[in-house]
Design a protein that fits this description.
This protein is an alpha+beta fold. It contains three helices and twelve strands. The strands form three sheets. Strands 4, 5, 6, 7, 8, 9, 10 and 11 form an eight-stranded antiparallel beta sheet that branches. It has a two-stranded antiparallel sheet with strand order 1-3. Strand 8 and strand 9 form a beta hairpin. The radius of gyration is 24 Å and the shape is globular.
Length: 196
């Protein structure tokens, strides 16, 4: 009788230990992957969703930034008197434009940009564009300065073409604080994703 109780206790402790180990592994997995129990609730650590549910992409921005959809486009700014911002515009392409690469599209867009901002000056390191991937899609990155309504700004523009749509992600800041957000902008680009 006594040996029977000991063996049940031994197996009960083993079961409890295995149960605790499995629960600990599940908690660690959800912490390390940034997930919670819902399939749509994943988000990069320290970031929040800035794009609308209707968009065919997800743009994540730092939690401290302010999301602003008042202009009808996805955008967010740093806040606290710092209006450095990131915005996304998407435009359907048609006809021959459907076959453009991001750099070919930029050459067309650049003409309009230069007509709008006659003092535009391209940063030497990105004048020809820097290739990158935006959620595994080919993209090009350009940076430049220009004066807008009497104020100089420093810009980064990332062009990506996917499924007949051109996506233009633009970071805008005053030159004195342009570098303050470059790491955050890179994090926004690294976590940008398209919805299948």
């Amino acid at each position: 009788m006594i040996s029977e109780k000991k063996s049940k206790g031994k197996y009960g402790r083993r079961f409890f230990s295995l149960l605790c180990a499995a629960a600990t592994a599940a908690v660690c997995l959800s912490v390390f992957t940034g997930c919670s129990s819902g399939s749509d609730s994943w988000h990069p650590a320290g970031m929040k969703l800035a794009s609308s549910e209707d968009a065919d992409y997800k743009m994540w921005v730092p939690e401290s930034w302010t999301v602003d959809m008042s202009t009808g486009i996805t955008s967010a700014y740093a806040g606290s008197g710092d209006y450095s911002n990131v915005s996304v515009t998407a435009q359907n392409l048609s006809g021959e434009q459907n076959y453009l690469t991001p750099s070919e599209y930029w050459e067309i867009y650049k003409t309009d940009l230069e007509a709008t901002f006659p003092d535009i000056a391209y940063d030497e390191d990105t004048e020809g564009g820097i290739s990158l991937l935006l959620d595994e899609n080919a993209a090009m990155k350009y940076s430049y300065t220009a004066t807008v309504t009497g104020t100089e700004f420093h810009f980064i523009s990332v062009v990506c073409i996917r499924s007949g749509t051109v996506y233009l992600i633009t970071y805008t800041a005053q030159p004195a604080i342009y570098e303050n957000h470059l790491e955050e902008v890179q994090n926004i680009l690294d976590n940008f994703s398209f919805i299948s």
